[in-house]
Amino acid sequence: MLAIKRVGLLVSERGYATASTFRAADTIVKKTERGNPKPDPNKLVFGATYSDHMLTIKHTNKAGWGKPVIEPLTDLKIHPGAKVLHYATELFEGMKAYRGDDGKIRLFRPDLNMKRMLSTAERSVLPTFDGNELLECIKKLVQVDAEWVPRSKSSTLYIRPTLIGTEPTLGVAAPSESLLFVVTGPVGPYFPTGFKPVSLLADTFHCRAFPGGMGAFKAGSNYGPTIYVNKLAQEQGCQQVLWLYGEKRYITEVGTMNVFMCIKNKKGGVELVTPPLNGLILPGVTRQSIIDLGRTWKDITVSERDITIDELLEAQQDNRLLEMFGAGTAAIVCPVERIVYEGKSYDLATMDKGAPITSRFHDEIVDIQFGRKPSKWTVDVA
Amino acid sequence: MLAIKRVGLLVSERGYATASTFRAADTIVKKTERGNPKPDPNKLVFGATYSDHMLTIKHTNKAGWGKPVIEPLTDLKIHPGAKVLHYATELFEGMKAYRGDDGKIRLFRPDLNMKRMLSTAERSVLPTFDGNELLECIKKLVQVDAEWVPRSKSSTLYIRPTLIGTEPTLGVAAPSESLLFVVTGPVGPYFPTGFKPVSLLADTFHCRAFPGGMGAFKAGSNYGPTIYVNKLAQEQGCQQVLWLYGEKRYITEVGTMNVFMCIKNKKGGVELVTPPLNGLILPGVTRQSIIDLGRTWKDITVSERDITIDELLEAQQDNRLLEMFGAGTAAIVCPVERIVYEGKSYDLATMDKGAPITSRFHDEIVDIQFGRKPSKWTVDVA
Q1: Core vs surface per residue B128-139: b (16+ CB within 10 A) or e
Q2: ipTM for this prediction
Q3: Measured between CB atoms, which of A46, A78, A124 is closest to B171?
Q4: Which option is the CATH number for B198-369: 3.40.30.10, 3.20.10.10, 1.10.10.10, 3.40.190.10?
Q5: What is the pTM of this model?
């Protein structure tokens, strides 16, 4: 086990009500007179199309939180000295609204996003708030732009809550002025024509997260530094990075996703392994859902435990690595078919039989998200 | 020696001309009709006051770099989906303009800032440019706002070049649209009434930088995560964090500064120790200048080498730790008088004799910056 000490108790672990918060009931709604045309749902590029409205909520240390405002999407006016542009005083969340066959719009486990957002805010010394209130504001925003939630069995409305430090002074310090905003936009299915497995570069130099760092938080500072490494992966014919940590080369994440490996153990059972929440791993909503679902299945054992690249490749050599996949809100699951490590290429068996375990997780989660299977994990929006 | 491998050759090491660049000769200057009143130079807070003008240069992958524009300082219009607000696709530099007793305005080793900015841009997959051209643009900006360069023996004009990714799409990828901007503002002396030494919390959990990360680059992602840790230091009665790395607890940096320790060695000589540029350390301009100056002194030896907290505290116990100080553009040098480590407080000897080595570095550097001592390190602006 990686010996990584815990940081002190964060607000999210104490429950997420805080002394100072905005209230969804105070929301001011200014609707646009004419919205933008909706794009062809079959031609959507992730994160490139935005709905007509956004939610903004200002915070100052002096006045606390202002009233939530839902207004037409527009450029933000940001002072060039704002801390967010210099010191990455910024965090975000990623979630989706799903329109079911019954026409209803639902969110999927949004309480987990609110909890993580507050945990990241506290670690980033950005202002905290009542997560239930933000969730109600987000519901209102989705209601205002309900026509932007695709009528589709697979397209969805992506929701991006963001919190930035806007105080226009250059000291490296907690901002006295901040802005919480939420934008949304329709996104197509990650795999429109069935799974398209990815290949990974297991990078032995670069590192996504480290003990005492930000790996467990959804902060902007975790993402910018990865772009260069992903470029190196692409130069080696891979799509994404398999992130390793430390001298023992523990497997941590895949690209911007959590990672799962289905390994036949030496007794013949199937173990689904994912790295534990040791401070290096983002507590993904899809990750947690796969763990929770997997624990109800009788044919696999779910383990949150450390696993090194050596153990993975040993299982691969012994034909015991059945499937490997990334997991995240965008793709739900993303099968892995190849790993490049220390100049060698390893072809994995993931797709040999059509990735049955990966597929089953995908289908069970999608059925819940689109309301085809009733679940306590969904929250009705409209 | 910390065994940290090097990342591939960055543009800064190949010389900083690139195929695509803007040209200072193309700069469009739009002066304000009436400037803001200049503040009292004795009441300046770092980074809170801005000069009248800013420099902006747009980049798109399609059109390349646009023309540099010097215009009145104004808010930037940034799409809420711009990558800089989500993924910390941002970097900056910190430099100063100094008005000498002769009235001339000078920059101090700006070539090192340009080199580091290009190195960080390449690591951040932000667009590169010809550093000489940006330097000429910065000179023009300082000339336009020359009245903002304090007439003072100690106040200066702080210069903040910044490069952000503005493409309004949510994919984690290199931005196809970026903005380079430079703002400036007058800053007072860091120590208006003589050195005010600081106390440090040697944090054993949090980490500023790690192998395979961004520690050697001036990227926003290195700074946001430190704000929380500095808050912890303040809660323990310290002003700043002494950043340690790894199980052996190597000393790396102090707050947002490089660190130097003057140690009497067992043979009686004085060694000035600073950690080497091993990938965890920002290549500071003041750091380099102290090393360069120190190597011309006959009474000390300068070592760029690893040093652990244990070695430091052993020297402290033996009364061989003469002085310790941080080094950076803002403070030049910042004496350290106390370290809190594992619940114990250690009073250092730094100020016992008035910090003679620290003071000598301070004075030699200031004399060069203000043109009192001729040097190849200064570049005339006007």
Answers
A1: bbbbebbbbbbb
A2: 0.95
A3: A46
A4: 3.20.10.10
A5: 0.95
